[in-house]
Amino acid sequence: MKTTKKRIARISIGITFVIAGTGKLLLPLAGGAVPTFPTVLETMGIPLPELLAPFICGIEITGGLALIRNRYLKPASLLLASILLGALATFSIPSTFGSPLIVQGLELGTEFFRIPLELGLLAALVWINRRDNPRPNPTLAP
Fold first, then answer.
1. Residue ranges of the domains in the chain?
2. DSSP secondary structure code for residue 65 in this structure
3. CB 35 within 8 A of CB 106
4. Do 129 and 73 touch, CB atoms closer than 8 A?
5. Nearest in space to 64 (alpha carbons), one of 23, 4, 93, 3
6. Which of 23, 67, 92, 120 could be disulfide-bonded to 14 (CB atoms 3.0-4.6 Å)?
7. Are 100 and 92 in contact (CB under 8 A)?
8. Tens digit of pLDDT per residue, the chain (142 long)?
9. What is the dihedral of CA 9, 68, 83, 98, to 10 degrees?
10. How far is the C-alpha of 12 from the C-alpha of 125, rounded, in Å?
């Protein structure tokens, strides 16, 4: 039963990251109606946004695909968790509890669900990597 729950969680998280990464890559095709991911990173003061944006998108897409395919779970989860922690620290928490990020006249980061979603994804990444039946520690055995 736990295996089925973890499989569903793993695939759902993977799909979430693939969609998020692909969406960020495809934003330039919107024709300037919405700010692109490098523009958002630049507004936040992140160095080398043109280099970092495709790198982040690539990690989200490949990490999501790794989760979907059940391959390289620990490294993929670690990379995706680091992206989530970075997003929380640099964007979500400051925008939610401080002032929102304004890029090209749009207010970003004021979504009420952003922090609970990111924390939930982070917790789920930890959970899917936990062992269902941990090996007993021989030094603690009676």
1. 2-131
2. H
3. yes
4. yes
5. 23
6. 67
7. no
8. 568 899 999 999 999 999 999 999 998 787 767 889 999 999 999 999 999 999 999 999 999 999 999 999 999 999 999 999 999 999 999 988 888 889 888 888 888 889 999 999 999 999 999 876 666 666 765 5
9. -40
10. 11
pTM of the model: 0.85
Nearest-angstrom CA–CA distance, 98 and 109 = 10
64, exposed or middle or buried, with CB in 10 Å at 0-12, 13-18, 19+?
Answer: buried
For residues 141 and 130, give the distance between their C-alpha atoms in angstroms, rounded to a whole number. 21
Task: Tell me which amino acid residue 50 is.
Answer: E
Q: Judging by beta carbons within 10 Å of its beta carbon (0-12, 13-18, 19+), is residue 127 exposed, middle or buried?
A: middle
Considering only the C-alpha atoms of the chain, give the largest distance between any 2 of them, rounded to a whole number of Å.
68
Task: Identify residue 98 by its one-letter amino acid code.
Answer: G
Amino acid type, 120: G
Which residues lie across from 102 on neighbouring strands? 107
